[in-house]
Amino acid sequence: MPKVPLMDKTGKNIGDIELSENVFGVDVNTDVMHEVVVNYLANQRQGTQSTKTRAEVRGGGKKPWRQKGTGRARHGSTRSPIWTGGGVTFAPKPRDYSYTVNKKVKRLALKSALSSKVLAENVIVLDGFKMDEIKTKEVATVLKNMGIVGKALIVLPENDQTVVRSARNIRGVDATFVGQINTYEVLNHTKCIILKDAVAKLEEVYA
């Protein structure tokens, strides 16, 4: 069974904690992770891009010159894509980029992502973290105590907005909870700080 360090808020190592092999010790499947990350990014796209085709650009109704006898190439409209001020060829239009991925594939991708972080020794389990008020400095202090520098993802057992809103003001640091964690977030952060109660929930849901 994989083991990771268990720390408290002061950064003191209070031992190791064994994690479930079914969640944190699976064979890392990079193909599945790639598929799910591409799906996640596609689903985030707004798809609101829009430019005008030659049919939508104002004007251009009159033929610029007669068909024959001028020595110039024939043209029917000044709004043709080859003219300055003309429309766009194959103009992008609003569309929906989202698509679905099999639920089992998503589960495997997340477990692969978590397992890859454990293999790289980038997972730390935090014994507990409760905040009475929104205070970015408190989260920054905890991260400093643990020696965390750079991008980090804090995984909470439930949606604790006090911690989420305190962490989001720190560059590269995000907080999420078990019900919302996804493969992209895990891979997009260097370190994963998982609360002890969140570990139990992850193992309960994904084992």
Structural account:
There is one protein chain. The protein has helices spanning 21-24, 30-44, 103-119, 136-145, 161-167, 183-188, 196-206; strands at residues 3-7, 13-18, 123-126, 152-156, 173-177, 191-195. With 207 residues, the chain is an alpha/beta fold. Strands 2-1-3-6-4-5 form a six-stranded mixed β-sheet. The longest helix is centred in the middle third of the chain and has 17 residues, at 103-119. The chain starts with a strand and ends with a helix.
Radius of gyration: 26 Å
Biggest β-sheet: count, sense, barrel? 6 strands, mixed
Q: Which quaternary structure do these chains form? A: single chain
Helical fraction:
25-40%
Provide the descriptors you would attach to this structure in a database record.
elongated; alpha/beta; 207 residues; 34% helix; six-stranded mixed β-sheet
SSE layout and pairing:
Blueprint: E1 3-7, E2 13-18, H1 21-24, H2 30-44, H3 103-119, E3 123-126, H4 136-145, E4 152-156, H5 161-167, E5 173-177, H6 183-188, E6 191-195, H7 196-206
Parallel strand pairs: 1-3, 3-6, 4-5, 4-6
Antiparallel strand pairs: 1-2
